[in-house]
Amino acid sequence: MKYYLALARNFTLVIFTAFAIAFAVGSLKQPPPNAPAIAEYQQTKFARELLSPSVFSFEIKVYITEKDVKSVCVEGVGSAFTVDEKGYFATNNHVVDVAAKEKFCTDNLAKTRNVPVSSLFGLRFDVKNFIVDSQNRHWNVDVIKTFPDSDVAVLKISNEQTNGTPPKKWKVAEFRTGSPSIVNGKIVSGKGPYVVPDEPVIMIGTPLELPFTITKGMLGNNTFRVGGKTPYLHFIAPINSGNSGGPLVSLLDFKVIGMATMAKPDFGGMTLQAGAVPFWEIQKVLKEVDMK
Question: Model's pTM, two decimal places?
Answer without folding.
Answer: 0.82
